[in-house]
Structure formats: structure tokens, C-alpha cells
Amino acid sequence: MTIHGKMGIDFEIKAPANKFHDLISCRPHHISNMSAEKIQGVEMHDGDWGKAGSVICWSYTHDGEAKVAKEVIEAIDNEKNSTTFRVIEGDVMKLYKNFVFVVQATSREGGGSIIHLTLEYEKLSEEVTEPYSLLQFVVHLSKDIDLHLMEQAQA
After folding, report:
1. What is the per-residue burial (b if ≥16 Cβ within 10 Å, else e) of 2-25?
2. Would you call 107 helix, strand, or coil by DSSP?
3. What is each CA distance from 66 to 14, 29, 41, 73, 155, in whole angstroms?
4. Distance (Å, rounded) from C-alpha 35 to C-alpha 60?
5. How far is 21 from 32, CA to CA, in rounded Å?
6. What is the pLDDT of residues 70-93, one digit of tens each?
7. In the predicted model, what is the mean pLDDT of residues 127-137?
8. H runs (alpha helix) in 7-131
């Protein structure tokens, strides 16, 4: 087993790439309105919404447990619709020395988007399992966001 790891997944959503990216990068504090059972809140700790270097704190429920994650927004690339988050404190850091999420939305011909989600991590020990459930958590959260964005577009 390796201590360093990287995993990713691509999946389709119906929402436009720029709308999904704008929400993830600039308005994550709205996500609790779209997926209240998964995300209870997102607070700004330092910086400004939509700015690289800002520090945000997520309150979420994963595997039936209330958890928190403090993250720095490392990069926002509006041309590539990509946002990079580095976890710096919280429950994830009990198992991982480093943990980075990269979320990229690419427009699909004919409408909708492809979301490319990448997790890069360094486990504290070889006994720590791969973060498959966190990957699936973010996929399901993205689907909730997609549903909300599509309902909003039809309103």
C-alpha cells in the first residue's frame, strides 16, 4: 500500500460549466441551501469569496457523522473552470497529512458539463484507507448542486 495517492473521477451534469464553477469557486456558502443534508454551512475565515488564498470552513455530514474541514482556496482558474482546495484543518487531517481537492468543469458539446474531480493525498500511515467515500461524497454533492442549478434555470 502507498502513503501518497491520487484518484479522480469524471461525471456528467446538466448545468453549464461556468455556472457550476462560479458556485464552487465564488459562492460555496450557498451550497448548504442546495444540499442541506450534506453541507450544514460554509464560513469565510480569512479573505474574500472567490479569491485564491481565502480560507473557508465547511461543516458537513459524511458517513452519518458531523465533521468540519478548514480549507485554503489555492487556485481559481476561470478560463479552465477549475478550483483547487487544500484541507488545512479538521476531520480529514486526522487521517491525512496532505489533502487537496481539484474540481474542474468542462463544457460538453450539446449542453451540460463534464466534472473532473481529483483528490491528491498523503496518508498519515499505511493503515489509512483510500478516500473513496469522500470522492463519492463530493460526486453526490455535485449532483445536488446540478439539480439546484437546473431548477433555478427553469424558474
Report:
1. eeeeeeeeeeebebbbebbbbbbb
2. strand
3. 29, 17, 11, 22, 33
4. 10
5. 16
6. 999 999 999 999 999 999 999 999
7. 95
8. 17-26, 31-34
